[in-house]
């Protein structure tokens, strides 16, 4: 397709929406992003951009701001939560390649992508709450809360977990509560903190932590298995004491971090199926709208970046939106399903109880001594995958 003649409407100014907007605008498309918030911002905490995601940012011309606003991750340390003892170290240098692993605040990534989109000519329209998506006609039509009617010659739904475009394509979602909740918080850190990600594992719970923003902040994500249901919302807050009580049996490093938490967000972890239909006519979905994932492999943002690149490339290469969208889903769906399954397995491995936990940790320690790169090499298919190559 000649993208210089294409008008594209993107719903959602998150990672997927802003990345695909810049990718298409760089090829000449007339792109408008509709965002329901009153500003382009991200309320989340930290995230990890692994080499497969960093490759997309580099291809989008955003390698320099990525380097400026992230910390290059050196390793992942797995710890036994109750004792605090280190179980194994995974050296990230082996899998980093030329793109590297990056620890950063989600708001900084959103800022990079928003500025990149604006610089490419993307129009960002705020306070655009979409109430209805109609895909029954020749052109997708959006109805806003203000009563406006917007026609979208090409519509890309990057509107997250509760996507209106996904619902229009697939009907109501059949998500279910996993029996797990996650807290997230950011605490102060001493500049110069070692740029490693730590995973502290215990019975029915684990905590992930790493430094952010030049080591001035530390990101905390703590997950607990429980029967009490929690809302699937990134804006729900909780009493920090609830978090401290859940991890009171962990070692002093973890409890010391949690003592510093004065504000914490809580969200219930729900498992959503990968959408059966990613596209119809001139509409398609990407990112969490297509394939929500649990946060146990740190691939949500990276999958969104990969989606954005592949979708833009298919629109540029193929003759019609329908052909491009079909090729995009065929290219992306198998990989996304595999990544989601791997994340689900990680959750189970982190939460082992005695005596399985001790046995598993002994195996990891032995493997770390005999074959130091083996544990991480299992994920070469994740990190060494480069959608921008070829």
Describe it for me?
This protein is an alpha+beta fold. The protein has a domain at 3-70 and 103-174 and 272-349: 3-Layer(bba) Sandwich (FAD/NAD(P)-binding domain). It has helices spanning 15-25, 51-59, 63-69, 93-96, 106-119, 164-170, 240-246, 252-259, 300-317, 321-350, 356-370, 374-377, 380-383, and strands spanning 7-11, 30-34, 46-49, 71-72, 75-80, 86-91, 102-105, 123-125, 130-134, 141-144, 149-151, 154-157, 176-188, 196-202, 205-212, 217-225, 237-238, 264-271, 279-280, 283-285. An eight-stranded mixed sheet has the order 6-5-14-15-16-13-18-17. A six-stranded mixed sheet has the order 8-2-1-12-20-19, with helices on both faces. It has a three-stranded antiparallel sheet with strand order 3-7-4. It is globular. 46% of the residues are buried.
In short:
By secondary structure, this protein is of the alpha+beta class. Helices cover about 35% and strands about 25% of the residues.
Main sheet characteristics: 8 strands, mixed
CATH class annotation of one domain = Alpha Beta
Number of strands: 20
Helix run count? 13
The outline comes out as globular
Q: Please, what is the average pLDDT? A: 92
Placed side by side, the strands forming the largest sheet appear as: 6-5-14-15-16-13-18-17
CATH fold node name of one domain: FAD/NAD(P)-binding domain
- Round the Cα radius of gyration to an integer and report it: 21 Å
β content, as a range?
A: 25-35%
Please report the distance between the alpha carbons of the first and last residues. 19 Å
Structural class: alpha+beta
Low-confidence stretches: none
Architecture per CATH nomenclature, i.e. the level-2 architecture of one domain: 3-Layer(bba) Sandwich
